[in-house]
Each structure stands twice: as structure tokens, then as C-alpha cells.
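Appendix C. Worked example: MFS transporter
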Amino acid sequence: MAHKNQNKWSVVIIACMAIFIIVLDSSAMNVAISTLVVELNTTLSIIQSIIALYALIIASFMLLGSKLQDILGRKKTFLIGLMIYACGTITATLSVNAFMLLTGWSILEGIGAAMILPATTTIVGAAYEGKDKVTAFGIWGGIAAMGAAVGPIVGGIFTTFVTWRLVFGSELVFVAFILIFRHYLSESKPTLTWKDLDKVGVLLSIVSLILIVLGILLLTRPDYWSYVAVLLISGSILFILFLVWQKRRINNGLEPLSDISLLKNRIFGLGNLNSIIQQIPLAGFLFIIPVFMQQVAKINAFMTGVALLPASISILIFSLLGAKLSSILESKYIIMIGFIISAAGAFILGGVFNINTHIIDIIPGTVVFGIGVGLLLSQLTNLTMSAAKSDQETDAAGFLNAFKNLGYSVGTALIGVLLILGIFGGLTSGIESAGLDGNMTTKQIHDSLFNYVEKMQTVPPKISPELVPQATQIVESTISYSMKQTFNALTLILILGFIISVFIPKRK
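Step 2, the predicted output written as C-alpha cells:
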């Protein structure tokens, strides 16, 4: 327990530093998308995949990362995860191509984060009691929100004025601080051995989630559409098999990877479902706004961070205010209000994107969206975790963090897919109807423009040079139309969250 007053909050501060750098990665690099495309000589789809796979790897390994605490102890699990994360950070910092960035950021950092996140939950929970525990988790949640809030501006400053590599490199300073003060963290006694680990469950959970998100990501490439259904169906079947396998192990008195009986609890189940739904629009918002601002509005990474700042501030303020609101208003109603407000923000944003859009034009919509998301962030974790018994907290934390990161991964993939498909739905016909096709076939036009958009308009389309300005205008207006349709989709997803939240039982 953290009894010494002078060091009372040391444990939560250490945990918060770890949470901060993990969340920072998710939001800071979105503003560097166009720079990454150019410097790593890659495409928009590949960068989108790397961002989505970072959250996917965290989600896929989260249940294993949570269970490792019972085998290794929470402190040892946390520190091993931190070292893996540091290796990933170094690799990402030194990346010379997209594959190296994928290895460092998505895979190594993702696996490290999957070990760190559930461990911080139990470390903080074990270090405090009573009101101190409530305060500690409030600080923990606030810092997580702050990481998301400052990420775009930090990423914009580094990318524009120094290099995007410092987003990753600067995280090593936090890693060093955590290692220096690691003696404040208390160890837990292992309750399981490696022999008790459900290895089949680990394999089923990881493979099923990876297949599902890969299936969504491949929607961006029409050439691979024949594989999409196979991946999605296979992933879904394997996840059902995972649940059946867990039930079988429980019935046979064996240690499951996760206590799936938690999912039968209505508050826990609906809380997790709403966490996924809330993460999808947030991830989509943080992905497509930078794409539009840099590709159509032609602003740099720093100004993209500035464009996202009002939303970030709203999320931070209302995630803190929402926690106070819960003392006078049932969490269920705050969640319902959060979904309605964020849906209104998404709907407002759908009508502001065109070739002449400036930062000032998107501020009202982003602020309203941020207020709603902030209210949701303030309630969903507490509401969901409140449904777990004390001996289920490790499994509950694993499930919640896994589903949240799965939602973020699906959001980046799905919303990116909607945007890209929307663009190509109108591009080819736009070029042909404008008489800009020359002697090119429809497929040649499509392939040329696909490369043009995928390279963030950094390579000229393969059409007559004198027609490039008109083709560029068609690309930009098509993107604007696609943005409107994509934000309409986000609005519908948030309304679905509102409908589901109606069925959340009131807490007694």
C-alpha cells in the first residue's frame, strides 16, 4: 500500500507515465501521415494499416498480457512489457522503410503495451484503498485522456519543425524515468505456473482478432476483395471456438485464459460493446481529419495538430467533468448524453468539408464531438469494471482493454476504408465525364488516380500535364463528398451506441 505521504502518489504517477506514452502513439502519428508516406516511400493504405495494426496487436495480446500477471507477477510483467515497448520505440525511431516502422511500432510496441496496460490497472488498484483508489483511477483516466489530447499537437510540432522520429524517441525519456523509480511498484505473488496457461486459448484469441481486422483492411484494395469474406468468416468462427474452448476449460476445472462468465453480466457486456462503438468513431475521426487537412486543405502537420486541438481540449475537460457529474447523475444517462452529443458533432462535421474548408470551419463540429467523447470516456471504464467481482478484476481489465483497442483498430480500418472507397466511387466517373480521360481505359484512369491518392498527391497522375489542375480539382471535390458520407456513417454508429446504452441496467 502507498502509506508514505511524501511518496503517496508515486505508484499512480509511474503507471500514468506508461499509459501516457502508449496513448500518445495512437494520436500523435496521425498528423504525420503525409510525411510518412513521402519519407518512407510508401502509401496511405500501408500507413493506415500500420496505425490499425498497432491497436490490433494490443487488443490481440491483451488477454495473454493480463494472464501473465498471474504467472510472473504484476511488477515483473509490467517491466518486461516496458522493455519490449522500448525495443519497439528504438526500432520505430530508426525506421528506414514501412516494414521497419511496422515491426517497431505495431508489433513490438503493441506486444509491450498489451503487457503494460492491464498491469497498470492492477498495480494502481493494489496500491490504494477507499477514496485514494477513486482519486488514483481518476488521475489514471485523466492522464490517458491528456495523452490523446496533446498527441496531435506534439506530433505536429516534432513532424513540422524537427522530425516525426522524435515522437518515438522522446518516449525513451519516460521509459528511463519509470525504470529509475520502479522500486515504488509492489510485486504480486504468482498464483499460476506456465503449465496452467491456456495455450490453445491464446492462439485462438490472437489469430481470430487479427483475421477479422485484416479482412476489414483489405477492403481498401479491390484486387483482394475475394479474400475479405474468407478472413472475416474465419476470424469470427475462430473467436466463437475461443469462447467455446474457454467454457469447456471452466467446466473441466482448468484455468481459462479469461473468465468468459463476465460476458454474461449485462452491465459488463453492454459496457464493453459501447466501448467498442465509442472507439470506432474516435479512431476514424483522428485518422480522416488529418488526411483531409493535409491532402485537400494543404496544411502541414503542426497546423493539423492545431486543427485537432479544440477537440482534444474538449475531450480532456469533459472526461474530467464527467467523473464529477456521476455523483449527481446515473452513469447510464451520462453515457446516453455522450453518444447523442458526439453524434451531433459528427453530423455537423459532415457538412463542412469542401475544397475551401479552413481550420476555423471545423472547430464547432470538433468541439461538440469532443464534448460527447469526453463524457463517454469518463464513464465507460468505471461502469464496465464495476460489474466485476474483486477476483475477476484481472480478467475484466484484460477484456475491457482488448475490446477498446479492437474498437480503435476497427475504427481506423473501417473508416479509412469508407473514405477510400468513397473517393474511388466518384473519381473514375468524374474524370470520364469531364473529358479528361484522353485515350486511357477506365482501368488505366483508376490505377493512375489510385496511385495519386495513395501517395497523398505527391506524384502526378498519369494524364496529360495540361489536364492535371482539372484532375486535381476532381480528386479534391470527390474527397470532400466522401468526407461527408463518412461522417454520416460515424453519426449512425454513435446513434447505435445511444440505442444500446438505453438497455444498460441502472446500478444499485
